[in-house]
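User: I'm new to structure prediction. If I give you an amino acid sequence, what do you actually give back? Let's try with this one:
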Amino acid sequence: MPRPRFMSYAVIMRLLTMLIVWLTLLVWVFNANRAGCLANAGVLALIAGMIFIAGNERSHLLRRALLEEAKQGEGRLLPLVYHGIPVTLRDAVGAVLLAVVLLASALTFAPQQWSVLFADLLLLTLLIPRLSRAMRGEVRAEYRYAMARQWAVWISLLLLWSEAVMSLALYPPADYTGMRWQEVVTYNLSVPDAACAPLQTAARVFVTGQAMAIWAVQNGTRFAHDPTQSIMLWVGYAALVGFTFLTALAYSRALIGVMGRPWEMWRRGGATDDTHGLAESAEARRLAQR
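Assistant: Good question. You get back a string of structure tokens that encode the predicted 3D arrangement of the chain. For your 290 residues, that looks like this:
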């Protein structure tokens, strides 16, 4: 009897591949308080590399589509403006910053958040092949799988971002009702331990922003008309939206990055994601020659 589609070899390999991200973060959190800066740099480089691959695939996908569809004749302006080297450097810097945010935020994750991250991983495992199949007849084969991965990034981002905002707003881990923001950041912060000083600093910044977000939600009506506190309310709201967004984006890109293939977008005739896609591309060429 044939195996169900959801138990196929490709699905299992996709699950195990994305599980690397979740396990890496989990193991690092348990060892962050005794791991030296060298070990932390290795973890940071690994996570940043995963994020970079997803971001670079997106950038070169857009760049390739733009140059193929918008450039006319031997035009040189678009290839100069969207040259691959500055695009890659931009993605590398962004990946490192997002990796720092993800590692700092991971130190604050509660058990239910780890469960949500794992559920998101399972969702993307089943979602990506369905997205690619849904694009048949809509998107050219050489773009289809890269686009499916990028769509999966945004679906994961919206789910994780919504969950994080609602959790902080409805089920905050601390009660700052009636406190002024100075009291919150001075006496009520619980900064997780990290043996490496730069990551400890990043964790403190993240915890401070998270505390300000919780304080703003809990005291919005109380201090709305207090000139000395109202400005910090907006800082807290910005932290609520921004910090959760960056964390969700970093984790989503890291998940997709372990499967990304940006090098297929570097050349004009990029290959597709698997043998099924290759077969479809060959079939499309045969039909075009008839």
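You can read the tokens as a compact description of the fold. Here is one thing that stands out. Residues 37-69 form the longest helix (33 residues).
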